[in-house]
């Protein structure tokens, strides 16, 4: 094994914290792309196997129960992400379920 | 389940990684060829329009002054800072993710990576200090994984760099052109220093099919994959693990000592030692023929700045010294004559250095 001398990691965006955030966002985008790519592969293989078609996914209309389930998940995701800028006590209250989004 | 049998699989070994690895490396390509290069073009325009590098007065051999003039300008640019951060991210993750992709499919890929037997180690466990540096922001250095040679060649080079730098073309064609440019029509005994995974070595074998070729490097994993590649190509090349400045080969045993992009991976004192070693290895009248980075003095203001900035931020610790050291003078001091320095591509990078050992030496 080599690699004894590891240089310092440079920073570019004015503060180490901003560089860390940029790395996190780039990493998340990479992960998002890997999932999107996999989803496209899945759709293709499922269509080839006659399980579903891309058209059937695109034209799918959720029934009332499924629509409610999707809406709840969507609200929770939006609340978690945009709630990240809220003051600590409000975020904590939300996590504890003492307030509703 | 794949319907492609092993026999009919025309993919290169690096393309046989799993979906995650493929998507992950393709994302890096998209980032580098799309966003990063677009932002770099903006940065270049900003530098050129600013006038800080006046075409008529800029002295690119004084790279410290060039950096002092340009760095504050680009550091004030959000486009530069953002592309720099993204470029750095891609460099830091590329090899590591290639290694992970290899390990996930190790059972399948290892059979494509190993030679008939490992390359023999002639270093006696002594490797130069400069070699331990983590070049190119790769985790663990040249031998950070036992199959780093496969990962570098098949994943980083074939999967990423050919797409990022090659425009879909053959980025290895320049190695063949450089091999052809050696002064003699034919050679009998060629030594390739710092052969890596054999990218240049195999081009030498194409150019001089009757020559006996000895190729050496310090990385065991790169050598092993070079040997595997040469076996797959049906070639008989002698590989050995040894430093370019301490080959252990016999005096006067070669008529061509050559390398491609080795010298900028070592400090100037080691470059001198490599020329001395080449002189010792060559028979009288033999040629030394080294291709490496362009001298800053022959680059435009922007290119010199960009080479140096990129070298610093891509962990190329010796590039600046190689690009500002008088390589021709080192060749002459080693005893060579007819020393030529010339550019291999318009713009001054890369550059070749070719010289002859005198008949009377």
Number of helices of chain A: 4
C-alpha end-to-end distance of chain A:
52 Å
What structural class is derived from the secondary structure elements of chain B?
alpha/beta
What's the CATH H-level homologous superfamily of the largest domain in chain B?
Vaccinia Virus protein VP39
Helix content of chain A: 55-70%
Radius of gyration of chain A: 21 Å
At the fold tier of CATH, the topology name of the largest domain in chain B is Rossmann fold
Structural class based on helices, strands and sheet pairing of chain A? mainly alpha
Give the overall silhouette of chain A.
flat
The tally of strands of chain A reads 0
Side-by-side strand order of the widest sheet of chain B: 3-2-1-4-5-7-6
Average per-residue pLDDT of chain A, rounded, comes to 85
| Proportion of beta-strand residues of chain B | 5-15%
Give the quaternary arrangement of the chains: heterodimer
Shape of chain B: globular
pLDDT under 50 segments of chain B (min length 5)? none
> Could you state the order of secondary-structure elements of chain A as H and E?
HHHH
General description of the model:
The complex is a heterodimer of chains A (101) and B (361). Chain A has 101 residues and is mostly helical. Chain A has two domains: 14-60; 62-101. Chain A has four helices and no strands. By secondary structure, chain B is an alpha/beta fold. Chain B has helices spanning 19-50, 63-75, 78-104, 106-113, 148-165, 173-180, 199-207, 220-232, 268-281, 301-313, 319-324, 327-333, and strands spanning 189-193, 212-217, 238-241, 254-260, 282-292, 337-343, 351-356. In chain B, helix 1 packs across helix 5 (148-165), helix 2 crosses helix 10 (301-313) and helix 6 (173-180) packs across helix 7 (199-207). Chain B is globular. The N and C termini of chain B lie far apart (65 Å). The mean pLDDT of chain B is 92. Classes of the chains: A mainly alpha (101), B alpha/beta (361). Chain A binds chain B through residues 1-7, 9-10, 12-14, 19, 22-23, 26-27, 29-30, 33-34, 37-38, 41, and chain B through 19-20, 22-24, 26-28, 30-31, 81-82, 84-86, 88-89, 92-93, 127, 131-134, 139-144, 313, 315, 317.
């Amino acid at each position: 094994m080599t690699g004894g001398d590891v240089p310092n990691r440079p920073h570019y965006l004015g503060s180490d914290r901003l560089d860390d955030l940029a790395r996190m966002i780039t990493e998340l985008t990479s992960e998002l792309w890997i999932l999107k790519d996999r989803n496209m592969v899945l759709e293709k293989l499922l269509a080839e196997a006659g399980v579903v078609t891309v058209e059937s996914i695109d034209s799918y209309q959720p029934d009332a129960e499924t629509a409610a389930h999707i809406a709840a998940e969507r609200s929770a995701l939006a609340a978690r992400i945009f709630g990240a800028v809220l003051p600590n006590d409000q975020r904590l209250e939300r996590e504890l379920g003492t307030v509703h989004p | 389940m794949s319907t492609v049998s092993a026999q009919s699989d025309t993919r290169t070994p690096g393309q046989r990684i799993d979906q995650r690895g493929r998507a992950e490396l393709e994302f890096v390509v998209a980032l580098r060829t799309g966003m990063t290069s677009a932002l770099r073009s903006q940065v270049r325009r900003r530098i050129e329009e600013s006038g800080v590098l006046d075409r008529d007065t800029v002295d690119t051999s004084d790279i410290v002054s060039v950096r002092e003039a340009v760095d504050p300008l680009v550091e004030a640019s959000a486009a530069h800072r953002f592309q720099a951060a993204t470029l750095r991210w891609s460099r830091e993750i590329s090899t590591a993710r290639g290694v992970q992709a290899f390990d996930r499919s190790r059972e399948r890929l290892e059979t494509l990576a190993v030679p008939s037997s490992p390359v023999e180690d002639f270093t006696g466990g002594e490797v130069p200090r400069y070699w331990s540096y983590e070049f190119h922001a790769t985790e663990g250095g040249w031998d950070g994984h036992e199959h780093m040679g496969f990962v570098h060649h098949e994943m980083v080079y074939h999967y990423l760099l050919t797409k990022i730098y090659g425009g879909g073309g053959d980025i290895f064609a320049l190695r063949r052109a450089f091999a052809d440019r050696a002064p003699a029509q034919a050679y009998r005994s060629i030594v390739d220093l710092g052969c890596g995974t054999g990218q240049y070595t195999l081009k030498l074998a194409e150019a001089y099919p009757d020559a006996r070729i000895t190729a050496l490097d310090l990385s065991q994993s790169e050598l092993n994959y070079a040997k595997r590649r040469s076996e797959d190509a049906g070639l008989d090349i002698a590989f050995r693990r040894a430093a370019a400045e301490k080959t252990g080969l016999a005096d006067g045993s070669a008529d061509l000592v050559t390398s491609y992009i080795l010298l900028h991976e070592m400090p100037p004192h080691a470059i001198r030692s490599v020329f001395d070693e080449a002189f010792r290895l060559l028979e009288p009248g033999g040629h030394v023929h080294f291709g490496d980075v362009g001298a800053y003095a022959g680059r435009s203001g922007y290119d010199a700045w960009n080479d140096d900035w990129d070298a610093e931020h891509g962990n190329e610790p010796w590039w600046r010294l190689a690009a500002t050291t008088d390589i021709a003078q080192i060749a002459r001091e080693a005893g060579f004559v007819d020393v030529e320095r010339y550019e291999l591509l318009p713009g001054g990078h890369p550059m070749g250095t070719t010289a002859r050992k005198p008949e009377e030496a």
